[in-house]
Amino acid sequence: MTVANDLILDVEQVRKEFPILARQVHDGKPLIYLDSAATSQTPQAVIDTLDDYYHRYNANIHRGLHTLSEEATGAYEHARDTVREFINAESIREVIFTRGTTEAINLVVHSWGRSQLKAGDEVMISYMEHHSNIVPWQMLANELGVTLKVIPVDERGVLDLDAYEHMFTERTRLVAVAHVSNALGTINPIKQLARIAHDKGALILVDGAQAVPHQRVDVADLDADFYAFSGHKMYGPTGVGVLYGKAELLEAMPPWQGGGEMIKTVSFDQGTTYAELPHKFEAGTPAIAEVIALERAIRWLTGLHFELVNDWEHRLLEHATERMLAIDGMRIIGQAPEKSGVISFLVDGAHAQDIGLLIDQFGVAIRTGNHCAQPLLHSFGVDATCRASFGVYNTLEEVDQFVDALNRVLVMVR
Ligand code: PLP
How does pLDDT run across 7-48, given as a tens digit for each residue? Predict the structure, then answer.
């Protein structure tokens, strides 16, 4: 659905839906939460959904014929269909619930990777990956003798597409790349990356953890073979995420974890047969309440309209960037033309850690550290940055208060 040009998001109304935003910290300072890239806050509707599940129909799914189990199963499977629609997957068989992005990537590494890759094959990742899209591939590469190739990133934080295209060989089997960088905010041209990978005969896995909360994601349009994301970064609960995979790929992949729920029959004499998709990849009792609440988060988020979310977050990004660049000695790491609401920064003469600790005293929550992206930060010659990241509930006034607090902190430490 398109939205009229003159509409803007009613942020005050949105904020009222997040009880935690009314919190005060450090002797009555209003909380200014600028760490949504790590974990977004949770609207009342999602909290209520969790509460309702435990109050009314907490039961294990797919196992019982009793009323509660049927209700829980129905809600869980309904959530799967909502996710399918949300990312425009073709079938619910392509939607696998996981604990989060990390587990989704590990599923592909262990199931697809172990069954499909041989020594000498190549997997391509990029310098801007989160550790969860590096380390599982490194572990597999070490185990199987697979070569890991790393796409370079330029000084603005943009992927070097020329290098990318030239890095393929006939042994390149898969590209694993972030849709949006958590450390820089760079939005990668996934459609183009996918087309190139496919032309070269490789698959593409997209880490969508930082994309799904901020833009409409259409896996069919992107032509992603695998797409992973987490609930807790998109106004949903922790402990739940999604792996999308094209049905024909998932079909050919062996199960990863074994246990209840993922089998058809188990026998000591005749061996074990596995359940159909998607259950083949969902061993054990899943995060039932969280899956159901994730559906609520999706409905909440789509109810805001992505065009408005996008516009608003872009205004926050532009306003914050402009004000921050006016600070003496400010260095913003990551200045890609296509950027999401993430600002990584350093200030001459001040340690990132000191800024993070002191600004918290003013009620401002930002992240400091390596953002689980050590190779990327090292490529910029730094070990740590401060990172302010925006959610749909942040305001321009909060940005101003953050910059004012930052200026006061800098007076203290420089
Ligand atoms: N990928 C990216 C780009 C992320 O930002 C994160 C979390 O910060 C992850 C993967 C890992 O997500 P999770 O910890 O929810 O599994």
Answer: 889 999 999 999 999 999 999 999 999 999 999 999 999 999
pLDDT of residue 1: 52
Tell me, letter by letter, the H, E, C secondary structure of the chain: CCCCCCCCCCHHHHHHCCHHHHCEECCCEECEECECCCCCCCCHHHHHHHHHHHHHHCCCCCCCCCHHHHHHHHHHHHHHHHHHHHHCCCCHHHEEEECCHHHHHHHHHHHHHHHHCCCCCEEEEECCCCHHHCHHHHHHHHHHCCEEEEECECCCCCECHHHHHHHCCCCEEEEEEECECCCCCEECCHHHHHHHHHHCCCEEEEECCCCCCCCCCCHHHHCCCEEEEEHHHCCCCCCCEEEEECHHHHHHCCCCCCCCCCEEECCCCCCCEECCCCHHHCCCCCCHHHHHHHHHHHHHHHHHCHHHHHHHHHHHHHHHHHHHHCCCCEEEECCCCCECCEEEEEECCECHHHHHHHHHCCCEECEEECCCCHHHHHHCCCCCEEEEECCCCCCHHHHHHHHHHHHHHHHHHC
What is the distance in A from the centroid of ligand 1 to the CA of 209? 6
41 lines ligand 1 (CB under 6 A): no
Looking at the CA of residue 101, tell me the nearest atom of ligand 1.
16
| Domains of the chain from N-terminus onward | 2-30+305-413 (3.90.1150.10), 47-302 (3.40.640.10)
**Residue 356 CB less than 6 A away from ligand 1:** no
User: Which atom from ligand 1 is nearest to the alpha carbon of 132?
Assistant: 10
